[in-house]
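Q: Got a minute? One more chain.
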Amino acid sequence: MPSNTSIEKASIPCENEIESPTRERHHDRTPLDPNSETRLLRKCDLHLIPILFGLYLFAFMDRINIGNAKIQGLQKELNMNGTQYNVALLTFFPAYVALEVPANILMRKIRPSTWLSTLMFSWGVVTICQGLVHSYGGLVACRVLLGALEAGVLPGCIYLISMYYKRSEMQKRYTAFFTSAMVAGAFAGLLAFALAKMNGLGGYSGWRWIFIIEGLATIVYSVSAKLFIPDWPEQCRFLTPEEKVLMNTRLAIDNASEEARMDRLDNAAIYRILKDWKIWVGSVNYFVLSITGYSSLFFIPYILNQFGWDATEAQLHTIPVYIVSAATTLLAAYLSDRLRHRYTFLMIGTTFNAIAYIILLCQGPPNPHGLPRNVRYMAIFFALIGQYISTPMVIVWLSNNLSGHYKRAIGMAIQVSIGNAGGIAASNIYLQSETPIFKTGYGTALAMVLASGFFSTVFYLGLKWENRQRVLGKRDWRLELRKEERENLGDDHPSFRLIG
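A: Always. Here it is, folded:
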């Protein structure tokens, strides 16, 4: 959702951005041409967001299509029983979590177009292999490999997007990219519905064709991804030298000081990254949100199946949920960027989520004595609306408050890494023994939603307090540090203002 914001509007400080002498020096410059900025933004939007949207769509679809395969006969054909399906879900995450930080550090040294397209081709091959396995062990091995290969995708895409846009422009761009996960959910249900009709073709069951066809599509897309994914701003081919200068100037003004950077990864920089409370609170917040998010994505077809719809109907009923969620998420992102504010929108998402899980916990038995099926279905809408308003907001909120190449690369990778560890817990909260009413699943999800509201409040109050300390000059002692360290402070620079 591109936004053509003039430099005058972009430079108006929000409630917690107060002018400093450093900021005033930047405003003394010759004003930037709004028309040139608009053209620059349009070029970035055109070359960056669509190709990454498609990349993450395939990544997410290849991650969650096991949920569609489950209700099409995967468990029965592979002789899986008990909690083996939950374990198959869980095994995706250990390598996925462990490799995200190294992947982002490595991507800084490799062209993003080469790195991301190579990962994509490789996980497409593994997805096809999932459709060819004949044992539970083979499925688990494929899930481990899939997790390892997808580890660099989300943090890498976030990092790349963040290098092209000002902080007040990030939320709607990142959310437009992130809606690919919702499109993947809707498309996966529709595609699974169609591919299930190939049951028996070539001697393969319908669930196998889900993996095979989607894996082939991923491989084909990876070729175009290599050609069209932009590299770092200083390397990209779609910007002219003049536009690169304009981009650097805009981002310098947005960061309040050219010195709010971290372009060197030395011991002092590593220490600053690891002791930054923002990274850890933002990571824990993403972790608790991921538990509710992943559990919903993996189990929604199965939950709808338990509402009384057969497998085909359950696949189709996932589609409207994702479409409505995408629309509300994009609206929230647009308003959040317009207001330069995140916290209130996170609390709105928390409210929708909490209402959803309260309804599901109180739904009663699946007969005339329980809640009508349409009310239960409405709760699923509320759950995903709340989830998808909150998840991209938490990620961008942290990114907005990190500055410098290495600070942003490592900080965001830590957040995504810790956050995605929530998928391990998410894989095990919906128990087959509790069908059709998943008390453990719904109760855990509600607790995590409330925890997210708490951590969002802590993060918001912490940002306001830190900004106040900088306004009062209590961080100016950092300007007395030796030049080498002072020029590598990142967002610890006293002139940098945090966004709530």
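A: Residues 34-77 form the longest helix (44 residues).
Q: Perfect, thanks.
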